[in-house]
Amino acid sequence: MNWKAQAIAHVFDQIADLSEISGIEPHKSYAYRRAARNIRNVQGSFDRLLEEDGLQGIAGVGPALASKAREIICTGRCEHLERLTEKVPISILDLLQVEGLGLKTAALIHQTLGVSTLDELEGAAREGRLRQIPGMGARRELGILDSLQRKRDHGGMTLDWADGVAASLSESLASHEGIRDVFPVGSLRRRSETIGLLELLVVSQGDGSIEDLSLEELLWVREVRSTPSEARSSWPRLELVLESDEICLIHFVPPEAAGEAMVRLTGAPAHLERLEALGYRCGEVPGGASEEEIYLRLGLPPIAPELRELGDEVDAALEGTLPRLVNQGDLRGDLHCHTEWSDGAASIEDMVTAAQQRGWQYLAITDHSHSLPVVQGLDAAGLRKQAKEIRSVRKRHPGFCLLHGVEVEIGADGSLDLPDEVLLRLDVVVAAVHTGLRGSSEKTTHRLVRAAAHPAVDIIGHPTGRLLSSRHPETPDLEKLLQVCRDSGTAVEINSSPDRLDLPWRWVRRARELGVALVVNSDAHSRHGLGMIRYGVDCARKGWCSAGDLLNGSPASEIQKRFTSRL
Protein backbone atom coordinates (compact mmCIF):
# COMPACT_ATOMS: atom_id res chain seq x y z
CA MET A 1 0.00 0.00 0.00
CA ASN A 2 1.14 3.53 -0.78
CA TRP A 3 2.51 5.08 2.42
CA LYS A 4 0.37 8.18 2.00
CA ALA A 5 -2.79 6.08 1.79
CA GLN A 6 -1.60 4.16 4.83
CA ALA A 7 -0.98 7.35 6.82
CA ILE A 8 -4.41 8.81 5.97
CA ALA A 9 -6.21 5.56 6.78
CA HIS A 10 -4.33 5.29 10.09
CA VAL A 11 -5.38 8.79 11.17
CA PHE A 12 -9.00 8.20 10.09
CA ASP A 13 -9.08 5.00 12.16
CA GLN A 14 -7.77 6.96 15.16
CA ILE A 15 -10.49 9.59 14.70
CA ALA A 16 -13.14 6.86 14.49
CA ASP A 17 -11.95 5.18 17.68
CA LEU A 18 -11.64 8.43 19.65
CA SER A 19 -15.04 9.64 18.45
CA GLU A 20 -16.64 6.44 19.67
CA ILE A 21 -14.78 6.35 22.99
CA SER A 22 -15.47 10.00 23.78
CA GLY A 23 -19.12 9.98 22.76
CA ILE A 24 -18.45 13.05 20.63
CA GLU A 25 -20.30 12.61 17.34
CA PRO A 26 -20.07 8.80 17.64
CA HIS A 27 -22.30 8.43 14.57
CA LYS A 28 -19.41 9.77 12.49
CA SER A 29 -17.06 6.96 13.50
CA TYR A 30 -18.57 4.63 10.88
CA ALA A 31 -17.93 7.21 8.13
CA TYR A 32 -14.26 7.48 9.08
CA ARG A 33 -13.85 3.71 9.29
CA ARG A 34 -15.48 3.23 5.91
CA ALA A 35 -13.27 5.88 4.34
CA ALA A 36 -10.15 4.34 5.90
CA ARG A 37 -11.03 0.89 4.59
CA ASN A 38 -11.71 2.13 1.06
CA ILE A 39 -8.54 4.25 0.99
CA ARG A 40 -6.54 1.15 1.89
CA ASN A 41 -8.20 -0.71 -0.97
CA VAL A 42 -7.43 1.89 -3.67
CA GLN A 43 -6.00 0.32 -6.81
CA GLY A 44 -3.53 2.16 -9.03
CA SER A 45 -1.69 5.39 -8.28
CA PHE A 46 -2.78 7.01 -5.02
CA ASP A 47 -0.36 9.88 -5.64
CA ARG A 48 -2.24 10.74 -8.82
CA LEU A 49 -5.52 10.93 -6.89
CA LEU A 50 -3.90 13.40 -4.50
CA GLU A 51 -2.43 15.53 -7.27
CA GLU A 52 -5.61 15.58 -9.35
CA ASP A 53 -7.93 16.12 -6.38
CA GLY A 54 -9.53 12.78 -7.12
CA LEU A 55 -9.96 11.60 -3.54
CA GLN A 56 -13.70 12.22 -3.71
CA GLY A 57 -13.91 9.44 -6.26
CA ILE A 58 -13.21 7.00 -3.41
CA ALA A 59 -16.41 5.64 -1.88
CA GLY A 60 -17.13 7.32 1.45
CA VAL A 61 -14.71 10.22 0.91
CA GLY A 62 -16.58 13.49 0.54
CA PRO A 63 -15.20 17.05 0.42
CA ALA A 64 -14.63 17.26 4.20
CA LEU A 65 -12.69 14.01 4.46
CA ALA A 66 -10.75 14.75 1.26
CA SER A 67 -9.68 18.06 2.79
CA LYS A 68 -8.52 16.31 5.96
CA ALA A 69 -6.61 13.74 3.90
CA ARG A 70 -4.70 16.49 2.06
CA GLU A 71 -4.00 18.21 5.40
CA ILE A 72 -2.49 14.99 6.79
CA ILE A 73 -0.13 14.56 3.84
CA CYS A 74 0.84 18.21 3.43
CA THR A 75 1.42 19.00 7.12
CA GLY A 76 1.79 15.68 8.93
CA ARG A 77 -1.04 16.86 11.24
CA CYS A 78 -4.81 16.68 11.46
CA GLU A 79 -6.52 19.52 13.31
CA HIS A 80 -9.70 17.49 13.88
CA LEU A 81 -7.72 14.67 15.52
CA GLU A 82 -5.89 17.20 17.70
CA ARG A 83 -9.21 18.66 18.90
CA LEU A 84 -10.39 15.18 19.84
CA THR A 85 -7.21 14.46 21.77
CA GLU A 86 -7.76 17.59 23.88
CA LYS A 87 -10.76 15.76 25.38
CA VAL A 88 -9.53 12.15 25.17
CA PRO A 89 -5.77 11.40 25.22
CA ILE A 90 -4.65 9.52 22.13
CA SER A 91 -2.72 7.11 24.36
CA ILE A 92 -6.06 5.52 25.24
CA LEU A 93 -5.95 3.84 21.83
CA ASP A 94 -3.03 1.78 23.12
CA LEU A 95 -5.53 0.06 25.42
CA LEU A 96 -7.22 -1.41 22.36
CA GLN A 97 -4.07 -3.43 21.66
CA VAL A 98 -4.71 -5.45 24.83
CA GLU A 99 -6.58 -8.66 24.21
CA GLY A 100 -10.10 -8.53 25.60
CA LEU A 101 -10.44 -4.74 25.67
CA GLY A 102 -12.79 -3.26 23.13
CA LEU A 103 -13.87 0.32 22.62
CA LYS A 104 -16.67 0.27 25.20
CA THR A 105 -14.55 -1.34 27.91
CA ALA A 106 -11.61 1.00 27.24
CA ALA A 107 -13.96 3.97 27.49
CA LEU A 108 -15.40 2.70 30.78
CA ILE A 109 -11.93 2.16 32.22
CA HIS A 110 -10.92 5.68 31.20
CA GLN A 111 -14.10 7.32 32.48
CA THR A 112 -14.19 5.37 35.77
CA LEU A 113 -10.51 5.14 36.69
CA GLY A 114 -8.86 7.87 34.62
CA VAL A 115 -6.66 5.23 32.97
CA SER A 116 -5.33 6.26 29.56
CA THR A 117 -1.95 4.50 29.14
CA LEU A 118 -0.73 0.91 29.23
CA ASP A 119 1.36 1.63 32.35
CA GLU A 120 -1.71 3.01 34.13
CA LEU A 121 -3.73 0.00 33.00
CA GLU A 122 -1.12 -2.38 34.39
CA GLY A 123 -1.09 -0.49 37.70
CA ALA A 124 -4.89 -0.64 37.95
CA ALA A 125 -4.86 -4.38 37.21
CA ARG A 126 -2.16 -5.13 39.79
CA GLU A 127 -4.01 -3.10 42.43
CA GLY A 128 -7.34 -4.83 41.72
CA ARG A 129 -9.04 -1.58 40.69
CA LEU A 130 -10.29 -2.91 37.35
CA ARG A 131 -12.90 -4.89 39.27
CA GLN A 132 -14.83 -1.63 39.65
CA ILE A 133 -15.74 -1.99 35.97
CA PRO A 134 -18.93 -4.03 35.36
CA GLY A 135 -18.08 -7.53 34.20
CA MET A 136 -14.40 -7.15 35.10
CA GLY A 137 -13.28 -9.69 37.71
CA ALA A 138 -10.04 -11.14 38.99
CA ARG A 139 -9.75 -13.56 36.07
CA ARG A 140 -9.97 -10.78 33.50
CA GLU A 141 -7.42 -8.73 35.43
CA LEU A 142 -4.98 -11.62 35.25
CA GLY A 143 -5.72 -12.01 31.53
CA ILE A 144 -4.95 -8.33 30.94
CA LEU A 145 -1.66 -8.59 32.84
CA ASP A 146 -0.75 -11.65 30.76
CA SER A 147 -1.64 -9.84 27.53
CA LEU A 148 0.50 -6.86 28.54
CA GLN A 149 3.46 -9.15 29.16
CA ARG A 150 3.04 -10.82 25.77
CA LYS A 151 2.89 -7.40 24.15
CA ARG A 152 6.26 -6.55 25.71
CA ASP A 153 7.68 -9.84 24.49
CA HIS A 154 6.34 -9.55 20.94
CA GLY A 155 5.73 -5.84 20.35
CA GLY A 156 6.81 -3.88 17.32
CA MET A 157 5.58 -2.64 13.98
CA THR A 158 3.94 -5.07 11.63
CA LEU A 159 5.73 -5.47 8.31
CA ASP A 160 3.23 -3.48 6.25
CA TRP A 161 3.38 -0.52 8.63
CA ALA A 162 7.18 -0.66 8.80
CA ASP A 163 7.37 -0.83 4.99
CA GLY A 164 5.20 2.27 4.71
CA VAL A 165 7.23 4.29 7.22
CA ALA A 166 10.52 3.16 5.66
CA ALA A 167 9.30 4.11 2.17
CA SER A 168 8.22 7.56 3.37
CA LEU A 169 11.51 8.28 5.14
CA SER A 170 13.58 6.85 2.28
CA GLU A 171 11.81 9.06 -0.24
CA SER A 172 12.45 12.15 1.87
CA LEU A 173 16.08 11.26 2.59
CA ALA A 174 16.86 10.45 -1.04
CA SER A 175 15.72 13.95 -2.08
CA HIS A 176 18.63 15.56 -0.17
CA GLU A 177 21.68 16.54 -2.13
CA GLY A 178 24.68 14.33 -1.44
CA ILE A 179 22.71 11.16 -0.76
CA ARG A 180 23.13 8.40 -3.32
CA ASP A 181 20.88 5.63 -2.02
CA VAL A 182 18.76 4.58 0.95
CA PHE A 183 18.28 0.91 1.85
CA PRO A 184 16.39 -0.90 4.62
CA VAL A 185 18.63 -3.01 6.86
CA GLY A 186 18.24 -4.85 10.16
CA SER A 187 15.13 -6.84 10.95
CA LEU A 188 13.10 -5.10 8.22
CA ARG A 189 15.44 -6.39 5.53
CA ARG A 190 15.39 -9.84 7.13
CA ARG A 191 11.57 -9.59 6.94
CA SER A 192 11.06 -10.39 10.60
CA GLU A 193 7.48 -10.83 11.82
CA THR A 194 7.52 -7.55 13.75
CA ILE A 195 9.99 -4.67 13.61
CA GLY A 196 11.02 -3.32 16.98
CA LEU A 197 13.70 -0.99 15.60
CA LEU A 198 13.48 0.38 12.06
CA GLU A 199 16.92 0.78 10.45
CA LEU A 200 17.90 2.50 7.22
CA LEU A 201 21.30 2.66 5.54
CA VAL A 202 22.11 5.95 3.81
CA VAL A 203 24.92 5.92 1.25
CA SER A 204 26.15 9.51 1.36
CA GLN A 205 28.83 11.62 -0.29
CA GLY A 206 31.13 12.79 2.49
CA ASP A 207 30.65 13.64 6.15
CA GLY A 208 28.97 16.94 5.42
CA SER A 209 25.81 15.21 4.26
CA ILE A 210 24.75 14.48 7.82
CA GLU A 211 24.91 18.04 9.08
CA ASP A 212 23.17 19.35 5.99
CA LEU A 213 20.08 17.16 6.44
CA SER A 214 16.93 18.91 7.63
CA LEU A 215 15.55 15.78 9.26
CA GLU A 216 13.32 17.69 11.68
CA GLU A 217 11.22 18.71 8.68
CA LEU A 218 10.49 15.14 7.64
CA LEU A 219 6.86 14.15 8.00
CA TRP A 220 6.13 12.03 11.08
CA VAL A 221 9.50 12.85 12.75
CA ARG A 222 9.12 14.31 16.25
CA GLU A 223 12.73 14.40 17.37
CA VAL A 224 16.23 13.81 15.99
CA ARG A 225 18.97 12.54 18.28
CA SER A 226 22.61 11.83 17.64
CA THR A 227 23.60 8.43 18.96
CA PRO A 228 27.02 6.87 19.56
CA SER A 229 28.32 4.11 17.32
CA GLU A 230 28.06 0.58 18.62
CA ALA A 231 29.55 -2.86 18.08
CA ARG A 232 27.92 -3.47 14.73
CA SER A 233 29.44 -0.40 13.09
CA SER A 234 31.64 2.64 13.59
CA TRP A 235 29.70 4.68 11.02
CA PRO A 236 27.83 7.85 12.05
CA ARG A 237 24.23 7.37 13.17
CA LEU A 238 21.16 9.42 13.91
CA GLU A 239 18.05 8.33 15.75
CA LEU A 240 14.64 9.55 14.63
CA VAL A 241 11.77 9.47 17.12
CA LEU A 242 8.58 9.28 15.08
CA GLU A 243 5.23 10.79 16.01
CA SER A 244 3.96 7.26 16.63
CA ASP A 245 6.81 6.72 19.16
CA GLU A 246 8.63 4.23 16.93
CA ILE A 247 12.37 4.61 16.56
CA CYS A 248 14.21 4.72 13.26
CA LEU A 249 18.00 4.42 13.26
CA ILE A 250 19.77 6.02 10.28
CA HIS A 251 23.29 4.76 9.46
CA PHE A 252 25.46 6.90 7.17
CA VAL A 253 28.26 5.31 5.14
CA PRO A 254 30.41 6.42 2.19
CA PRO A 255 29.93 4.55 -1.09
CA GLU A 256 33.06 2.42 -0.63
CA ALA A 257 31.68 0.99 2.65
CA ALA A 258 28.15 0.21 1.41
CA GLY A 259 28.73 -3.52 0.79
CA GLU A 260 30.25 -4.14 4.20
CA ALA A 261 27.52 -2.07 5.87
CA MET A 262 24.80 -4.13 4.18
CA VAL A 263 26.35 -7.33 5.55
CA ARG A 264 27.07 -5.95 9.01
CA LEU A 265 23.74 -4.19 9.53
CA THR A 266 21.48 -6.87 8.05
CA GLY A 267 22.66 -10.06 9.73
CA ALA A 268 21.33 -11.17 13.13
CA PRO A 269 24.03 -11.70 15.80
CA ALA A 270 24.19 -15.49 15.27
CA HIS A 271 24.74 -15.00 11.53
CA LEU A 272 27.55 -12.49 12.07
CA GLU A 273 29.22 -14.74 14.65
CA ARG A 274 29.38 -17.57 12.09
CA LEU A 275 30.83 -15.22 9.49
CA GLU A 276 33.45 -14.06 11.97
CA ALA A 277 34.38 -17.68 12.66
CA LEU A 278 35.17 -17.93 8.94
CA GLY A 279 37.44 -14.88 9.10
CA TYR A 280 35.11 -11.95 8.52
CA ARG A 281 36.27 -8.85 10.39
CA CYS A 282 34.56 -5.47 10.47
CA GLY A 283 36.75 -2.82 8.88
CA GLU A 284 39.01 -5.29 7.06
CA VAL A 285 36.87 -5.59 3.92
CA PRO A 286 38.43 -3.99 0.82
CA GLY A 287 36.75 -0.71 -0.12
CA GLY A 288 34.04 -1.01 -2.72
CA ALA A 289 33.38 -4.70 -2.09
CA SER A 290 29.76 -5.68 -2.63
CA GLU A 291 27.80 -8.02 -0.38
CA GLU A 292 28.25 -10.82 -2.91
CA GLU A 293 32.00 -10.30 -3.01
CA ILE A 294 32.23 -10.41 0.78
CA TYR A 295 30.43 -13.75 0.93
CA LEU A 296 32.51 -15.15 -1.94
CA ARG A 297 35.74 -14.17 -0.14
CA LEU A 298 34.53 -16.32 2.77
CA GLY A 299 33.90 -19.27 0.46
CA LEU A 300 30.13 -18.79 0.55
CA PRO A 301 27.44 -18.20 -2.05
CA PRO A 302 25.31 -15.12 -1.37
CA ILE A 303 22.84 -15.80 1.46
CA ALA A 304 19.39 -14.27 1.17
CA PRO A 305 18.69 -11.62 3.84
CA GLU A 306 15.64 -13.53 5.12
CA LEU A 307 17.86 -16.48 6.11
CA ARG A 308 20.48 -14.51 8.06
CA GLU A 309 19.06 -15.41 11.46
CA LEU A 310 20.24 -18.50 13.34
CA GLY A 311 23.72 -19.16 11.98
CA ASP A 312 23.00 -22.60 10.55
CA GLU A 313 22.29 -20.97 7.20
CA VAL A 314 26.05 -20.36 6.95
CA ASP A 315 26.69 -24.08 7.46
CA ALA A 316 24.11 -24.90 4.79
CA ALA A 317 25.80 -22.45 2.44
CA LEU A 318 29.17 -24.15 3.03
CA GLU A 319 27.56 -27.53 2.34
CA GLY A 320 25.75 -26.30 -0.76
CA THR A 321 22.32 -27.16 0.68
CA LEU A 322 20.65 -23.75 0.74
CA PRO A 323 17.23 -23.91 -0.92
CA ARG A 324 16.22 -21.86 -3.96
CA LEU A 325 13.79 -19.62 -2.14
CA VAL A 326 10.29 -19.05 -3.46
CA ASN A 327 9.47 -15.70 -5.08
CA GLN A 328 6.07 -14.05 -5.55
CA GLY A 329 6.24 -14.85 -9.25
CA ASP A 330 6.42 -18.58 -8.43
CA LEU A 331 2.89 -18.63 -7.02
CA ARG A 332 0.15 -19.71 -9.41
CA GLY A 333 -2.89 -18.90 -7.28
CA ASP A 334 -4.50 -18.44 -3.88
CA LEU A 335 -6.64 -20.90 -1.89
CA HIS A 336 -8.19 -18.64 0.77
CA CYS A 337 -10.05 -15.38 0.16
CA HIS A 338 -13.37 -13.73 1.02
CA THR A 339 -16.05 -11.84 -0.86
CA GLU A 340 -19.16 -9.81 -0.10
CA TRP A 341 -20.91 -13.12 0.55
CA SER A 342 -19.45 -12.90 4.06
CA ASP A 343 -17.17 -10.11 5.33
CA GLY A 344 -15.34 -9.25 2.10
CA ALA A 345 -15.64 -6.00 0.15
CA ALA A 346 -15.69 -7.32 -3.44
CA SER A 347 -17.77 -9.61 -5.60
CA ILE A 348 -16.63 -13.04 -6.79
CA GLU A 349 -16.25 -11.60 -10.29
CA ASP A 350 -14.04 -8.77 -9.01
CA MET A 351 -11.80 -11.16 -7.07
CA VAL A 352 -11.38 -13.41 -10.10
CA THR A 353 -10.51 -10.45 -12.32
CA ALA A 354 -7.96 -9.21 -9.79
CA ALA A 355 -6.42 -12.68 -9.55
CA GLN A 356 -6.11 -12.88 -13.33
CA GLN A 357 -4.45 -9.45 -13.40
CA ARG A 358 -1.83 -10.88 -11.07
CA GLY A 359 -1.15 -13.66 -13.58
CA TRP A 360 -2.66 -16.38 -11.40
CA GLN A 361 -4.24 -19.50 -12.82
CA TYR A 362 -6.68 -20.24 -9.99
CA LEU A 363 -8.46 -18.84 -6.95
CA ALA A 364 -10.52 -20.43 -4.18
CA ILE A 365 -13.46 -18.48 -2.77
CA THR A 366 -13.66 -19.45 0.90
CA ASP A 367 -16.17 -17.27 2.70
CA HIS A 368 -16.83 -17.81 6.40
CA SER A 369 -19.31 -20.34 7.71
CA HIS A 370 -22.37 -19.15 9.59
CA SER A 371 -21.54 -19.57 13.31
CA LEU A 372 -18.74 -16.99 13.47
CA PRO A 373 -20.57 -14.16 15.27
CA VAL A 374 -18.64 -11.20 13.86
CA VAL A 375 -19.39 -11.93 10.19
CA GLN A 376 -22.43 -12.69 8.10
CA GLY A 377 -21.32 -16.23 7.25
CA LEU A 378 -22.86 -18.93 5.08
CA ASP A 379 -24.94 -21.93 6.05
CA ALA A 380 -25.77 -24.83 3.74
CA ALA A 381 -28.47 -22.87 1.92
CA GLY A 382 -26.17 -19.90 1.48
CA LEU A 383 -23.44 -22.08 0.02
CA ARG A 384 -25.91 -23.56 -2.47
CA LYS A 385 -26.84 -20.06 -3.62
CA GLN A 386 -23.19 -19.09 -3.84
CA ALA A 387 -22.47 -22.21 -5.91
CA LYS A 388 -24.82 -20.91 -8.60
CA GLU A 389 -22.86 -17.68 -8.87
CA ILE A 390 -19.58 -19.61 -8.87
CA ARG A 391 -20.80 -21.63 -11.87
CA SER A 392 -21.89 -18.46 -13.65
CA VAL A 393 -18.49 -16.79 -13.11
CA ARG A 394 -16.72 -19.94 -14.32
CA LYS A 395 -18.59 -19.71 -17.61
CA ARG A 396 -17.42 -16.13 -18.09
CA HIS A 397 -13.79 -17.09 -17.35
CA PRO A 398 -13.32 -20.46 -19.08
CA GLY A 399 -9.52 -20.37 -18.96
CA PHE A 400 -9.40 -19.76 -15.22
CA CYS A 401 -9.73 -22.34 -12.43
CA LEU A 402 -12.26 -21.00 -9.90
CA LEU A 403 -12.70 -23.21 -6.85
CA HIS A 404 -15.65 -23.09 -4.47
CA GLY A 405 -14.77 -23.47 -0.82
CA VAL A 406 -15.45 -22.29 2.70
CA GLU A 407 -13.54 -21.20 5.78
CA VAL A 408 -15.33 -23.39 8.30
CA GLU A 409 -15.24 -22.61 12.00
CA ILE A 410 -13.78 -25.23 14.33
CA GLY A 411 -15.98 -25.60 17.40
CA ALA A 412 -14.88 -25.83 21.03
CA ASP A 413 -14.83 -29.63 20.79
CA GLY A 414 -13.13 -29.78 17.40
CA SER A 415 -16.33 -30.34 15.43
CA LEU A 416 -16.98 -28.37 12.27
CA ASP A 417 -19.61 -25.71 11.69
CA LEU A 418 -21.20 -27.43 8.68
CA PRO A 419 -22.41 -30.99 8.05
CA ASP A 420 -20.07 -33.44 6.32
CA GLU A 421 -22.37 -33.78 3.31
CA VAL A 422 -22.13 -30.03 2.71
CA LEU A 423 -18.35 -29.87 3.13
CA LEU A 424 -17.73 -32.87 0.88
CA ARG A 425 -19.52 -31.12 -2.00
CA LEU A 426 -17.04 -28.23 -1.93
CA ASP A 427 -13.68 -28.01 -3.68
CA VAL A 428 -11.66 -26.54 -0.81
CA VAL A 429 -12.32 -26.56 2.93
CA VAL A 430 -10.16 -24.31 5.11
CA ALA A 431 -10.75 -25.03 8.81
CA ALA A 432 -9.84 -22.38 11.39
CA VAL A 433 -10.35 -21.26 14.96
CA HIS A 434 -11.51 -17.69 15.61
CA THR A 435 -13.20 -17.93 19.02
CA GLY A 436 -12.30 -19.42 22.39
CA LEU A 437 -8.63 -18.64 21.86
CA ARG A 438 -8.07 -18.09 25.57
CA GLY A 439 -8.50 -21.78 26.29
CA SER A 440 -5.63 -23.98 27.36
CA SER A 441 -3.00 -25.16 24.91
CA GLU A 442 -4.35 -28.70 25.30
CA LYS A 443 -7.90 -27.67 24.34
CA THR A 444 -6.72 -25.63 21.36
CA THR A 445 -4.51 -28.51 20.20
CA HIS A 446 -7.43 -30.95 20.46
CA ARG A 447 -9.65 -28.69 18.36
CA LEU A 448 -7.06 -28.30 15.61
CA VAL A 449 -5.93 -31.93 15.59
CA ARG A 450 -9.49 -33.22 15.35
CA ALA A 451 -10.21 -30.87 12.45
CA ALA A 452 -6.96 -31.73 10.68
CA ALA A 453 -7.88 -35.43 10.74
CA HIS A 454 -11.36 -34.78 9.31
CA PRO A 455 -11.64 -36.21 5.76
CA ALA A 456 -13.36 -33.07 4.42
CA VAL A 457 -10.69 -30.63 5.64
CA ASP A 458 -8.04 -29.67 3.11
CA ILE A 459 -6.22 -26.83 4.90
CA ILE A 460 -5.77 -25.72 8.51
CA GLY A 461 -5.94 -21.91 8.44
CA HIS A 462 -3.80 -19.57 10.61
CA PRO A 463 -3.23 -22.31 13.22
CA THR A 464 -2.01 -20.23 16.19
CA GLY A 465 -4.75 -17.61 15.89
CA ARG A 466 -2.33 -14.86 16.83
CA LEU A 467 -2.62 -11.20 15.92
CA LEU A 468 0.87 -9.74 16.05
CA SER A 469 1.44 -7.00 18.64
CA SER A 470 -2.00 -7.55 20.17
CA ARG A 471 -3.39 -11.07 20.52
CA HIS A 472 -1.10 -13.92 21.49
CA PRO A 473 -3.37 -16.76 22.59
CA GLU A 474 -2.31 -20.05 24.08
CA THR A 475 -0.11 -21.67 21.44
CA PRO A 476 -1.22 -25.15 20.42
CA ASP A 477 1.19 -28.05 20.33
CA LEU A 478 2.34 -27.32 16.80
CA GLU A 479 4.65 -30.31 16.63
CA LYS A 480 1.68 -32.61 17.23
CA LEU A 481 -0.51 -30.70 14.79
CA LEU A 482 2.12 -30.83 12.04
CA GLN A 483 2.58 -34.57 12.47
CA VAL A 484 -1.19 -35.14 12.22
CA CYS A 485 -1.35 -32.97 9.10
CA ARG A 486 1.55 -34.87 7.56
CA ASP A 487 -0.13 -38.22 8.24
CA SER A 488 -3.57 -37.10 7.05
CA GLY A 489 -2.34 -35.15 4.02
CA THR A 490 -3.94 -31.94 5.31
CA ALA A 491 -2.10 -28.78 4.30
CA VAL A 492 -1.14 -26.01 6.73
CA GLU A 493 -1.61 -22.39 5.79
CA ILE A 494 0.93 -19.59 5.90
CA ASN A 495 -1.53 -16.75 6.32
CA SER A 496 -0.21 -13.62 4.59
CA SER A 497 -2.01 -11.00 6.65
CA PRO A 498 0.77 -8.86 8.17
CA ASP A 499 -1.17 -9.07 11.45
CA ARG A 500 -0.92 -12.86 11.40
CA LEU A 501 1.99 -14.38 9.41
CA ASP A 502 0.70 -17.65 10.74
CA LEU A 503 2.16 -20.38 10.57
CA PRO A 504 5.16 -18.57 12.18
CA TRP A 505 8.33 -18.86 10.12
CA ARG A 506 10.21 -21.08 12.59
CA TRP A 507 7.36 -23.59 12.38
CA VAL A 508 7.21 -23.20 8.60
CA ARG A 509 10.76 -24.48 8.57
CA ARG A 510 9.83 -27.40 10.84
CA ALA A 511 6.81 -28.24 8.66
CA ARG A 512 9.08 -28.31 5.63
CA GLU A 513 11.44 -30.71 7.43
CA LEU A 514 8.51 -33.01 8.28
CA GLY A 515 7.20 -32.98 4.71
CA VAL A 516 3.92 -31.24 5.58
CA ALA A 517 2.08 -29.65 2.66
CA LEU A 518 2.16 -25.85 2.98
CA VAL A 519 0.21 -23.16 1.18
CA VAL A 520 0.70 -19.37 1.18
CA ASN A 521 -2.75 -17.77 1.25
CA SER A 522 -3.68 -14.10 1.18
CA ASP A 523 -6.87 -14.38 3.28
CA ALA A 524 -7.86 -11.36 1.17
CA HIS A 525 -11.08 -9.50 1.92
CA SER A 526 -10.76 -7.20 -1.11
CA ARG A 527 -9.08 -6.96 -4.51
CA HIS A 528 -6.23 -5.05 -2.91
CA GLY A 529 -5.91 -7.72 -0.23
CA LEU A 530 -4.63 -10.24 -2.76
CA GLY A 531 -1.42 -8.22 -2.83
CA MET A 532 -0.84 -9.03 0.84
CA ILE A 533 0.39 -12.42 -0.33
CA ARG A 534 3.84 -10.81 -0.58
CA TYR A 535 4.09 -10.99 3.21
CA GLY A 536 3.22 -14.67 3.23
CA VAL A 537 6.00 -15.19 0.70
CA ASP A 538 8.36 -13.35 3.08
CA CYS A 539 7.35 -15.78 5.84
CA ALA A 540 7.79 -18.78 3.55
CA ARG A 541 11.25 -17.59 2.52
CA LYS A 542 12.27 -17.19 6.16
CA GLY A 543 11.09 -20.77 6.63
CA TRP A 544 13.46 -21.92 3.84
CA CYS A 545 10.64 -22.73 1.39
CA SER A 546 11.11 -23.18 -2.32
CA ALA A 547 8.20 -23.11 -4.77
CA GLY A 548 8.03 -26.91 -4.64
CA ASP A 549 7.27 -26.82 -0.92
CA LEU A 550 4.03 -24.89 -1.50
CA LEU A 551 0.77 -26.19 -2.92
CA ASN A 552 0.16 -22.95 -4.78
CA GLY A 553 3.56 -23.21 -6.39
CA SER A 554 1.84 -25.84 -8.53
CA PRO A 555 0.01 -25.19 -11.83
CA ALA A 556 -3.76 -25.34 -12.12
CA SER A 557 -3.69 -28.87 -13.55
CA GLU A 558 -2.16 -30.24 -10.34
CA ILE A 559 -4.46 -28.17 -8.12
CA GLN A 560 -7.48 -29.56 -9.96
CA LYS A 561 -6.24 -33.09 -9.35
CA ARG A 562 -5.77 -32.46 -5.63
CA PHE A 563 -8.99 -30.50 -5.15
CA THR A 564 -11.38 -32.46 -7.32
CA SER A 565 -14.67 -30.64 -7.87
CA ARG A 566 -17.57 -32.40 -6.20
CA LEU A 567 -20.32 -30.02 -7.33
Summarize this structure briefly:
By secondary structure, the chain is of the alpha/beta class. The chain has helices at 3-22, 29-40, 46-51, 63-75, 79-87, 103-113, 118-126, 138-154, 159-174, 186-189, 208-212, 258-266, 269-277, 291-297, 312-319, 348-357, 380-396, 420-423, 441-452, 478-488, 505-514, 533-542, 556-562, and strands at residues 157-158, 179-185, 194-195, 198-204, 221-226, 237-242, 247-253, 333-337, 362-368, 401-409, 428-432, 459-460, 491-495, 518-521. The chain folds into 3 domains: 3-154, DNA polymerase beta, N-terminal domain-like (DNA polymerase, domain 1); 157-319, Beta Polymerase, domain 2; 328-562, TIM Barrel, CATH 3.20.20.
Features:
seven-stranded parallel β-sheet, 23 helices, five-stranded mixed β-sheet, Beta Polymerase, domain 2, DNA polymerase, domain 1, single chain, 567 residues, 3 domains, TIM Barrel, globular, alpha/beta
Explained architecture:
- It is a single chain.
- The chain has 567 residues and is an alpha/beta fold.
- Helices cover 42% and strands 13% of the residues.
- It has three domains: 3-154, Orthogonal Bundle (DNA polymerase, domain 1), CATH 1.10.150; 157-319, Beta Polymerase, domain 2 (2-Layer Sandwich), CATH 3.30.460; 328-562, TIM Barrel, CATH 3.20.20.
- The chain contains 23 helices and 14 strands.
- The strands form three sheets. The chain has a seven-stranded parallel sheet with strand order 8-9-10-11-12-13-14. The protein has a five-stranded mixed sheet with strand order 2-4-7-6-5, with helices on both faces.
- Strand 10, helix 18 (420-423) and strand 11 form a beta-alpha-beta unit.
- 45% of the residues are buried.
